[in-house]
Design goal:
The complex is a heterodimer.
Chain A lengths: L1 H20 L5 H4 L16 H31 L7 H11 L4 H12 L3 H25 L3 H9 L4 H32 L11 H10 L2 H35 L1
Helix pairs in contact in A: 1-10, 3-6, 3-8, 4-6, 5-6, 6-8, 7-8, 8-10, 9-10
Chain B lengths: L4 H16 L3 E4 L7 E3 L1 H4 L2 H20 L3 H26 L8 E4 L1 H21 L3 H21 L6 H44 L1 H16 L2 H18 L1 H5 L7 H26 L2 H9 L4 H35 L8 H9 L3 H33 L1
The chains are: A mainly alpha, B mainly alpha.
Amino acid sequence: MRSLANVLRAAALAALLAFLLTPQRFARLFVPFTQYGAPPIYDQGNLLTLALAQLGTVLVAAAASSLVAVSLGILVTRPGGAEFLPLSRTLVNIGQTFPPVAVLAVAVPLVGFGLRPTLIALFAYGLLPIFENTIVGLRTVPAAVLEAASGMGMSARQRLQSVELPLAMPLILEGIRLSLVINVGTATIGSTVAAKGLGEVIIAGLLSNNTAFILQGGLVTGLMAVLLYDALVGLERRICARARIE
Amino acid sequence: MKLDRLGALLTAAGALALLTLPFVVFKANRIVPGDPRTLLQVLPAWAALGCYALLLAVAASALVADDARIRLLAALAGVVVVALAAAAAGNALTPPGNKVVRIAPGAAWWVLLIALGLLATDAATRLRPPPALRVLFLVVCVAVAWLALAHGTFDHLSIMREYAVNAARFAHEAARHVSLAAGSLGAALAAGLPLGILCHRVPRLRGATLGVLNVIQTVPAIALFGILMAPLGLLAAAVPLAAALGVRGIGAAPAAVALFLYSLLPIVANTVAGLKRVSHAAVEAAHGMGMTNAQVLRRIELPLALPVILTGVRVVLVQNIGMVTIAALIGGGGLGTFVFQGIGQTAIDLVLLGAIPIVVLAFSAAVLLDALVEVMDHTRR
């Protein structure tokens, strides 16, 4: 079962890389999806560059939202920030009802077209799952463990660093993974406001009625999301395993 | 006396915004850049100072009041003051009969509204109202906003100007938005419930089904909308009946199918999870009473799984209301039409005309279904 998963994983990665590096070799596969002799492979830009641009946007946004969300999560679970806890939990709930397009659309008039509104939308949208999981992770550390740590003479700071955060880490990482995967898909919408990414390919397909383009943009984005999800699950296992050994 | 930290933070933000940012922005027409105005520049001195005094009272209650009910009332009063101040500014700045000038709420207005909203949310969270009261509160808020809009209180503000231009289309697109979101949910329930029950009964099916549905979720919405255009277009060409029913390559059909596919995962996964939660003892007792499999399912398993299934419905409905927005890109209609038109024309008021109702719809759906889940969960215990 394990080896089958590995073979599938390797095959998906190989297919993705092969397609991004030499898309023209796959042209014959996409010809049935075109009409009137339209180009079967996106020809208004380099697919690899677009995929990397999208991945870069997502990673930058995710790094920023992880940093902010985890810090805020730590803050509201400390005694000093307890007054903010009820509000922040409600905000997470409310925030998730905001569609990402709406965030994107409202950011455009404020910061202009291009990468910046996309980064803001992805950042804001990525905050929620990480923040939520950080709070749950930190609050579900058993009280007995906390008392034991204090009994050993740990300061509040030491306790956070060497007891609470490691114990909450699996949930925090899960939040980061959720937010990354959602954002890979959401980033395609950024192309409606002229951010570089695979959404450009999809939109070009929609405008010129070329299903081959739409398929390419969609499949590459979907594959990237699945592989990223998979890689992060592996990374999580490794980090958590190491935490347990220590 | 102890200062409330959240109140202090929000008061500082609101005060800073009022002092440094424009309360409204005056534009001679839709295209030219705006001219920032403060409240004192726009309203007669007594009115502006009255607003400041009322906001100061709200701030005082945010800083020192202990009772969450007082804090909630004060914050809501603040929202009303800020909203009416913007409306008054719109009336004062618009020359009689002029339909070209645009008066948009400025940055300070938005910051104040957000700060007051946070204050109200915090107070409401601390009060922990029962589900019925939450729904009543939502209904009253929506009704008040509706009455004010219908009365024309905000007619001189830029968003309402955009509405006035698009009034006929707005009702149509809003109805389309709701019917797409709710229709695909209905279809997903009709297909997802049996599929979920099947997955529960046949464990081998479970992994594969949920795996496929999980992969569908990773396909970005605009791509799935696009991918479905081709097969539906072919279907319409090949089957006249389908075409007569309105199935076309572009428009609402691919949007509805895509939303249906996205909706399946939460419904199926939650049905499986809900059924798994039902205790074996209950099922065995029912069998022991001589119930048939179908009776056990209908009278024991499904009712016990209902709260979890409803949680899935909540996820789907909120997600769908947001995702229908993107359907506008493929001619599917809905409120997203205004959002994307607004982006195209860099007209933020048009964007907001689409975005605000979408957020209100999604939020209302979340509140209603959360209340329903809570009531269900409670009556079961």
